[in-house]
Amino acid sequence: MKLEKNALHYLEEKGKLLQKMAQDIWEHPQLGGQETYAVKLITEELTKAGFTIEENIGGIPTAFVASWGKGRPIIGILGEYDALPGLSQQVLSQKKPVQEGAPGHGCGHNLLGVASLGAALAIKAAMEKEGINGTIRYYGCPAEETLIGKVFMAREGVFNDLDVALTWHPMNLNLVWDSSCLAMNSFKLNFYGKSAHAAAMPHMGRSALDGVMLTDVGINYLREHIIPEARVHGVITNGGLAPNVVPDYAQAWYFVRAPHREQVEEIYQRILKIAEGAALMSDTKYEVEFIAGCYEYLPNETIGEVMREKMEKLGAPQFTSEEKRFAQELESTLPREMVEGALRGYGLTREEGGGSLCDRILKSSGPYGKGKVMPGSTDVGDVSFLVPTAQFMTAGMPVGVAAHSWQSTASFGSSIGAKAMLFAAKILALTAAELINTPEAINKAKEEHKQVTRNKEYKSPLPNDLKSNL
């Protein structure tokens, strides 16, 4: 197939450039909503290639949509580029930050955004060379770690006319992501009381901290009476200034997660009732600060099968003895039971996984298998409710290493991560090429999506008047 051949040729030619870009973004990590460095690098390449850029999507300065071409199909490729707080780390097998307390790419979004860019540029170049009509869009999605970017973008309707959406994520294994994940609400509860001297006149005060603590106690009792698959977790972000001053302000921040959006909403409403009761008991007032919410992920099996075929056709990247040694050194920093537990969770032996570094294509199994629900959340879920969406993973860190750790930051900044990134770019480009050449596959994906979302109307989880705080 000429389209596939031309796309792969483009990626082979531009591989070093893409590696350099991913490393550059890794060396300049920025938190969600602040990713100006990555956005500048990516949009410059897209502009040079003839894409038109629409910026400030959903009121977020680092959210954008880049488009090239005309007519259908309209293929969307999702990119992310935000880093995580406190995960600065050198490419070493011992913990050593580049800068103490600074952000780091512990989730590999430096790789994610650039691989998606490479795929968008490659398929555009191939279509242009072959004179094929269609539209390619790169979605610059900020702040995935706080589940904000795509949700605000979805409310703007920028995904609505897509035929399909494609994405990926660097992880420990090479496989298609066939499982769902948890829907979520993120919100803060602000309590307001009255300050007073805690020893001399405590009766004159009304403790906002009491409101927070009573809420938390109520939530602990609630846990017995919600579905076991749900999760409610939170922190007290402000509990007062000193023990001898009755706090007139306190704040708690909670996540509510469950397998389905309607379950999140039901639990969320019950928590608001608990907060209302806590305010009555403590004679304080409270306000809800809604941060973000997202839907569960709906994997499209039709597109997933195309991705799997392309992964198997390409074959997994192979690693050098030096890369394997680095992976083993990173693995040695982990408790043995952590590595063994990860393998058990995946349903793999060490041999089946390829050792410390996965060097083969795996069937979706363990937590990523069909019918399973991952314990985390992603704002890709909102896109998947709107259009047929599929994603996969490639091995950019050793088996057993957890994302959001200093070990993952080190690996995603190494040549291991670079290989995972280039592999992902090829899979995305080949999948897009296959879908462009076979309209019946897109039609089948759409029909599947229609059936899966029957009686599941997408309604933005965001309040109508909520603006991004990024």
* Main sheet properties: 7 strands, mixed
Taking Cα atoms only, what radius of gyration do you get, to the nearest Å?
A: 23 Å
* Total discrete domains: 2
Strand content: 15-25%
Give the helix/strand class.
Answer: alpha/beta
The side-by-side strand order for the widest beta sheet comes to: 1-2-4-3-5-11-6
At the fold tier of CATH, the topology name of the largest domain is Aminopeptidase
Detail the poorly predicted runs: none
Q: How far do the termini sit from each other?
A: 44 Å
In DSSP terms, counting alpha (H) and pi (I) runs of 4 or more, how many helices?
14
CATH superfamily of the largest domain: Zn peptidases
Characterization of this structure:
42% of the residues lie in helices and 17% in strands. With 470 residues, it is of the alpha/beta class. The chain folds into 2 domains: 2-181 and 296-452, Aminopeptidase; 183-294, 2-Layer Sandwich (Alpha-Beta Plaits), CATH 3.30.70.360. The strands form 2 sheets. A 7-stranded mixed sheet has the order 1-2-4-3-5-11-6, sandwiched between helices. Strands 8-9-7-10 form a 4-stranded antiparallel sheet. Helix 1 (2-27) runs antiparallel to helix 13 (415-437) and helix 13 crosses helix 14. The mean pLDDT is 96.
Structural descriptors:
470 residues; alpha/beta; Aminopeptidase; Alpha-Beta Plaits; 2 domains; seven-stranded mixed sheet; four-stranded antiparallel sheet; 14 helices; 11 strands; globular
